[in-house]
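=== Structure Prediction Worksheet ===
Name of assembly: unnamed complex
Input type: mixed (protein and possibly other molecules)
Chain count: two
Listed entries:
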Amino acid sequence: MEYKVKMYVSYKDGILDPVGKTTADALSALGYANVGEMAVGKYITFTIDAADADKAGTQIKEMADKLLTNPVIEKYHFELGQ
Amino acid sequence: MEYKVKMYVSYKDGILDPVGKTTADALSALGYANVGEMAVGKYITFTIDAADADKAGTQIKEMADKLLTNPVIEKYHFELGQ
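=== Predicted Assembly ===
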């Protein structure tokens, strides 16, 4: 069964987000000072072929821990669709 | 009124995604060959202070076109919450 996966990776709370900070400052310089709490993470989409949703989920967690995220400083969540 | 925004930025169809390709190859090398159509984009979250949802939406589109995305090669969608 092929599943479509959407994974959202962002920094854990308390971790400095230099890209988010720089982006917010740039927006402010463009006159958009009403923007706050800017964070820039990864939006990863892919398909995965697995026997069922549980197996797909288990593999996604493995891939996230091994490669797709940095478990020390990043958190993630994902959506599984067909 | 403060709105919470989630923006998802990805490459337009047909645009080469080197990070996506490299990630898929790396996963395959780790033994995860059942993964396909890997694309890595940006997951941007922020708050915006606006009079109403329409005004917030208009400003978000402006910021996307000017700074948050590259309209030539990227597409995006966003969710507005409170």
